[in-house]
Every structure is written in structure tokens, then in C-alpha cells.
Design a protein that fits this description.
about 600 residues; alpha+beta; seven-stranded mixed sheet; five-stranded antiparallel sheet; 18 helices; 18 strands; about 40% helix; disordered N terminus
Length: about 600
């Protein structure tokens, strides 16, 4: 074989490798420093004593089966890299640089089934490369140091070219080319795969699925040229790169960019005395505009955690004219203390023009209670009914008639149609199950005006009984975020998620303006609702029309006076047999109203 021709091909290959991947490894375990000396006469390759640490600096390509040919050939492997098959380096071969020799020897090692390290440089004229198992064991524990004799010596000539002065090809261990992919020096993520991993990560695809996509496209895990840990390390590195110097600074810059795009974008960052991020509040311009119209009731919940930073994510959620959940503000809090919530509510109200919501729905967190009491004095506070009901199994687990007790308790809460009815049934329940001294039930009773539906019917709740709106918003964000996302990633995906929400509202607006839902009756009052409501809300109204079929006026009880008081104030009794939870219970309601429409009570 012509040495000059081979060396030219080797140099070209080395340049391609260097241009594509550089000299640094993606995996932290791939690259370590070299600290050692050796004595070498350069010409005969005799080796003197060496003092080395455990580290080595490796370069290499993806593991492939070793195929020796007379001249270099190439084909494109599954990773999009050109796979060139090298002959074993031989004494007398000339290269234009030390890196060219190392790249060639490392590629030969990959195809053969071992890894190469630089044993050290006495000076700029001599070089020694050896099998990474060549070092002498220094510990009794498991080690790959077994004193393998395989090595390559090179010397730099006066014209700057390097010539191989000696080679030892024999190893004292088995070689398996298929194992090369597990050796750090031979694991690489090519440029195409790096771009794909980063693009998928920005799109919100979780690392495990991201890596699996690459494996499928490459034809299997053994075809990607690295192991999943390398991909995860790369993804983490790119995230840190996108994050910048620090979380607080990165988010500040991101907020500044968003505010430059829209001047009414609101954000506030609370930083402690040491410059660490403490609390963050941000409100999209669309949220501020929506709050002007939909500030009747707001749900607030902090049960969603960004686990990588252990920061609760709080969401203010309302309901728009389509019955859709709308995001009215977001917050990240380091601690769920009363001071944190007071800071949050005060600044949120200020950002919303000082307008307090008429009602707010939260869980029974004591810190939230205190903050609402101190900051939102003009807002009615309701507790999430779902959170209360979810505690029943644990609170009633000691009762003999466990299932019946839970069923009866829910009936008292949901089916009491008057306050008197609730009070009577509650007292009977306590006596029946011997729970008069139950502290949890006593605490609930003391605050019954904040969670029992019969006490709250005089307030508009937009169909909300619990913080399900907030929790539903958290579930919505789950499609765009994962538990280990950084704060900057969180904000990036927030922009994507809020964009999708805005698009859904825009589509609903289009549907309501361009399509008309048919009326069920010929009454003029239904036509009025058809004109006034959006399609989604008109459908909810028509559900009430369907239920009217099962409502009938019945005579007043014997112990009551006539249903009609006078020409101004009237009273009727209505029997309701509409479908509820797949069965038809019977309820008799007393309806009182004024003919002029200024008073109505059911």
C-alpha cells in the first residue's frame, strides 16, 4: 500500500472527526486529565519508568465490527457518520500531526475492541499511546489495569511530520469489537443526533422517549453509537447551556424579552439577600385582558410541583364565556408560607388593576387561609369540596358501617336543599355514628359556610365546586412539561402551552360567530338566550330546558298557606325528578319570587 496515499486518507478522516465532534467528550467520564512522565529513546521504542494517574484522554467513533481491507473504504453508518476501516498502524507510517496518529490508532482500536490512552509526553518530540489496560494495578479492588503490553511509539521529525517508531500489537486480554460501543472513548453522539435530541427536548419530549425515538430511527439501541446515559448527559448539558449562568438571571432575561414583545406583560421576581430565587409571579397580557371580564370567581391551587427545584407551581384560573378554563396568572414559590402567599396575592391584585375577585376557591391550607383573610378582604373564600371529600376514607376508617357512613355524609352535603334540612341531618348523623366529639367534623361544621353548597348558592361560582379547574390546568401543562424541567425550560414550555390555550379560545369564538345551535322550543325567551350566549353556554342552558320536563308544580303542603301571597310576591312548590348520577331522586323545591323580577329564591 502507498504510505502517502494512506496517510492522506487518514489525515482527511481525522479532520472530519475533529470538525464534527471536537476534542471534548459529552460524557463526564469520557475525559480526564493526564499527569505523568516517561522516558523513551524515540527510535527503538524502549520504555522507561512511568508515573501516571488514573486518567486518560480519549477520542473515538462509534463501535462497529472490525473489517480489514487493503485500502480504506467507506460507507455511511446508521448514525450518519462515514465509517472508514483502517489497517493496523505499522512502523514507518508518517502522519502530519500527533492528533492524526492518535485518531488513526483509536479508530483501529475501535474496530478491534480496545481503547487507547495517551501514556504521556516527555517533550514535544516523542509520544506514546497504549491500550487503556496497560497501566499497572495499584489497588486490590476491581480495575481494568492489567499491564497490557500493546502500545505505539512515535517521534516528530525535523520537518514537523510524525513517524511511528515502534508498535506492539499483542494484548494480554481478549478483544471483542462488539464491546467497543460500551467503552467511553468510542461512544459519540453525532451532529445529527445532537440536533435531534435538543430539538425534541425543546419540544417537551421527555428524555426517555426522546432517546427511544433516536434508537428507533437508528435501527436499535446498538446502532446509535452511545448509551442512554450519554444522551441524558448531553440533554442536561444543553439545558444548562440554555439556562445560562443562574436561574434567576435566566428568567429575568426571558421576562425582559417577553415584556419587550408586549409591554403589558407583567412579571415579578422575589430574590433573597443572597441573590437566590425565592418567588416568581408572571401574568400573560391575555390573562390581564381576560380578567377585566371574568373576575367573578377564581380558583387557586398549588398542588403541582416542579420537582427538580421542589417549587410549588400556583395557578390562578378563571372561566371564560365559552365555559373554558383560562389562566389568570402563574407563580413559583419556594415555600408555602403565609408570607409567600401574601406576597403573591398582593402583587397579583396590583397587577390586575386593584380589582379583587368576587369569590376565590382554594384548598384548606392554613397559610392560604391567612393570606386570603389579610389581603382579599372583599373576596368570598370557598374551600375545595373535592379535597374535603377525599379525606373521608381516612377519617371514617374506624367506623363499623364505613361505606354507609360515607354515602350518608355525601348525601347530607350534596342533597340538603335547605339550611334547616342540613342542620337536622348533620346532627342526626353525628348521633347515629357516635361522632359528636370528632374534632375533624367539628372543624368542618365551624366553617360550614365556606364549603357546604347550601350555604353558598347565593354566590355565582361559574359551575365550580372544587379547584378542579386549577388541577385541570396543571394536567394541561403536563403535556408540555416534565418533573425535572428547569425554570427556564418551564417558562419556554409555558409560552407554548398558553399559545395553545389562546388558539382554542379563538376557535371557540369562530364557532360561535359562524354556527348557530338550534332552539329546542318555539319560545321567544330561548331565542333570547341563543342570541346572548356562546354556543357552549347555550348548550348548557338547553340541558336545563331538558330537565324542566321533569319539573312539576305541586300543591303546597297542608301546614303552609296558599302558594300566592299577593300580586307582587308569589310562592310555588316544584317537584323535581330530573336525572342525577344515573338515577332520578325526588326533590320538592319552594320557589319565591317577585313579579317585577327583583327577587327570586329557590
Amino acid at each position: 500500500m502507498d504510505d502517502e496515499h494512506l496517510n492522506t486518507d487518514v489525515r482527511s478522516r481525522a479532520e472530519v472527526i475533529h470538525d464534527l465532534f471536537g476534542s471534548d467528550s459529552d460524557d463526564e467520564s469520557h475525559s480526564e486529565g493526564v499527569n505523568g512522565q516517561f522516558q523513551n529513546d524515540g527510535c527503538n521504542g524502549d520504555e522507561g519508568t512511568s508515573s501516571l494517574n488514573d486518567g486518560f484522554h480519549n477520542f473515538g467513533l462509534n463501535g462497529q465490527e472490525n473489517l480489514h481491507v487493503e485500502a480504506p473504504t467507506s460507507n455511511d453508518d446508521v448514525n450518519g457518520q462515514e465509517n472508514v476501516h483502517f489497517e493496523a498502524p505499522q512502523k514507518g507510517m508518517i502522519y502530519d500531526s500527533f492528533d492524526s496518529i492518535f485518531d488513526a490508532y483509536q479508530e483501529y482500536a475501535r474496530q478491534t475492541g480496545f481503547s487507547v490512552l495517551k501514556r504521556g509526553l516527555k517533550n514535544s518530540k516523542y509520544a506514546l499511546m497504549a491500550c487503556d489496560k496497560s497501566r499497572v494495578p495499584i489497588t486490590q479492588n476491581s480495575s481494568k489495569r492489567i499491564g497490557c503490553p500493546a502500545r505505539l511509539n512515535a517521534i516528530r521529525k525535523d520537518d514537523g511530520f510524525w513517524v511511528i517508531s515502534k508498535t506492539v500489537m499483542k494484548h494480554n486480554h481478549d478483544l471483542d469489537p462488539t464491546m467497543s460501543i460500551l467503552m467511553p472513548a468510542h461512544r459519540k453522539i453525532n451532529v445529527h443526533m445532537k440536533r435531534q435530541l435538543e430539538a425534541n427536548d425543546i419540544a417537551g419530549i421527555r428524555p426517555s422517549k426522546n432517546i427511544r425515538l433516536c434508537e428507533v430511527q437508528a435501527g436499535g439501541p446498538d446502532k446509535i453509537g452511545c448509551i442512554p446515559r450519554d444522551c441524558r448527559n448531553f440533554i442536561d448539558d444543553r439545558r444548562r447551556f440554555r439556562l445560562g449562568v443562574g436561574d434567576a438571571e435566566a428568567i429575568r432575561k426571558l421576562f425582559a424579552r417577553l415584556q419587550h414583545r408586549d409591554r403589558i406583560f407583567f412579571h415579578l421576581i422575589d430574590i433573597d439577600d443572597e441573590g437566590r430565587l425565592r418567588n416568581v409571579l408572571w401574568i400573560h397580557p391575555r390573562s390581564r385582558a381576560a380578567y377585566e371580564y371574568f373576575n367573578d370567581v377564581v380558583s387557586f391551587d398549588t398542588t403541582y410541583l416542579v420537582n427538580r427545584y421542589e417549587m410549588p407551581f400556583g395557578a390562578f384560573v378563571g372561566v371564560n364565556h365559552h365555559g373554558q378554563s383560562i389562566l389568570l396568572g402563574c407563580a413559583l414559590l419556594t415555600q408555602e408560607t403565609i408570607d409567600s402567599f401574601k406576597w403573591l396575592f398582593e402583587n397579583w391584585i396590583e397587577a390586575m388593576g386593584g380589582v379583587h375577585p368576587k369569590a376565590i376557591l382554594t384548598d384548606q391550607c392554613e397559610s392560604i387561609k391567612g393570606a386570603v383573610r389579610d389581603v382579599l378582604q372583599n373576596t368570598f373564600h370557598r374551600y375545595c369540596l373535592w379535597h374535603i371529600m377525599s379525606k373521608l376514607p381516612q377519617k371514617f376508617k374506624g367506623l363499623a358501617e364505613y361505606n354507609r357512613a360515607i354515602s350518608e355524609f355525601k348525601g347530607i352535603v350534596y342533597d340538603s336543599i335547605t339550611i334547616t334540612d342540613f342542620e337536622s341531618r348533620w346532627a342526626d348523623f353525628l348521633v347515629k355514628y357516635g361522632m359528636q366529639n370528632n374534632a375533624w367534623l367539628q372543624g368542618l361544621y365551624d366553617e360550614k359556610e365556606k364549603w357546604v353548597p347550601i350555604f353558598l348558592r347565593h354566590i355565582f361560582w361559574a359551575g365550580m365546586l372544587s379547584t378542579q379547574r386549577s388541577e385541570g390546568m396543571h394536567a394541561y401543562f403536563d403535556d408540555y412539561m416534565h418533573s425535572r424541567c428547569s425554570l427556564k425550560e418551564f417558562m419556554e414550555q409555558y409560552e407554548v402551552a398558553i399559545g395553545k390555550k389562546i388558539q382554542k379560545e379563538f376557535i371557540a369564538d369562530f364557532e360561535s360567530k359562524n354556527k348557530v345551535k338550534k332552539c329546542k322550543t318555539h319560545y321567544h325567551w330561548e331565542k333570547q338566550f341563543q342570541d346572548a350566549f356562546t354556543n357552549n353556554m347555550f348548550l348548557k342552558f338547553q340541558e336545563e330546558i331538558d330537565r324542566m320536563v321533569y319539573c312539576h308544580i305541586v300543591p303546597a303542603p297542608e301546614n303552609d298557606d296558599d302558594g300566592v301571597f299577593d300580586d307582587v310576591f308569589q310562592k310555588f312548590y316544584v317537584l323535581d325528578r330530573s336525572l342525577r348520577n344515573n338515577f332520578r331522586p325526588e326533590f320538592t323545591y319552594k320557589v319565591e319570587y317577585r313579579a317585577d323580577g327583583e327577587y327570586l329564591n329557590c
